[in-house]
Design goal:
216 residues, alpha+beta, 7-stranded mixed β-sheet, 47% helix, 22% strand, globular
Length: 216
């Protein structure tokens, strides 16, 4: 029942603040807003969110293409789902959606990612559910000194996709140019302004709650 009420959709520039908030709640690896903007401007097809029935973002995947690499491949920058919505298969859906776009839009050969050695739940998801394989251990990869597993998942270009390739490719290219075109400087400025206003509202609410507690 809960899964049906959560919608997986492509992220828009107006979702970035909520994605950042979700990241802050879930992960120790946090990013500045300009990093999210860089992703959505460069690879708008690869950012997805999980949105509940109240239009609240409860999970996201932030991904990119390693454009200068050979063979061409995608990379999962960040994946997070709020604790209240875990064990519903949302992380799997987000990952598979982003991976599908990497394969159909960009013709990626494989997807890579890093995961903390201590994060056994994520490691299990990547290896058992999504078919990733460990390729290396990167020593002290994270800011706190923890090692990371470097993992890869090779994408399968099925015969069915091959048959639809000509038509699908054209559609994807159209979608790509359309999305990129719609993200203008004005949209970025509006999104940043909106994010600042929301932060101000959140701060005012916190201040009110603090004042209320003092008078209790």
């Amino acid at each position: 029942k809960s899964v049906r009420m959560v919608n997986i959709r492509k992220a828009t520039i107006n979702d970035l603040l909520e994605m950042q908030n979700c990241n802050l709640f879930c992960l120790p690896e946090n990013y500045q807003m300009k990093y999210y903007l860089y992703h959505i401007l460069s690879w708008p097809q690869l950012l997805y969110v999980a949105e509940d029935y109240n239009k609240k973002i409860v999970g996201y995947v932030l991904a990119k293409m390693e454009d200068n690499s050979k063979p061409l491949h995608g990379h999962i920058t960040s994946l997070a789902v709020l604790r209240s919505h875990r064990k519903l298969g949302l992380a799997t859906k987000l990952m598979r959606t982003a991976q599908g776009e990497m394969e159909t839009v960009f013709k990626a050969e494989y997807v890579s990612l890093h995961v903390r050695k201590s994060n056994t739940a994520a490691y299990h998801l990547y290896t058992k559910t999504l078919g990733y394989e460990q390729h290396d251990i990167e020593s002290k990869y994270y800011a706190d000194g923890e090692d990371a597993y470097y993992m890869k998942c090779y994408l399968i270009h099925s015969k069915e996709k091959g048959k639809k390739g000509g038509k699908g490719k054209g559609d994807d290219t159209k979608g790509k140019s359309k999305t990129t075109k719609s993200i203008t400087k004005e949209a970025i400025a509006a999104a940043i302004k909106k994010a600042e206003k929301q932060k101000e509202k959140q701060q005012k609410l916190k201040d009110r709650q603090t004042s209320a507690k003092q008078f209790q």
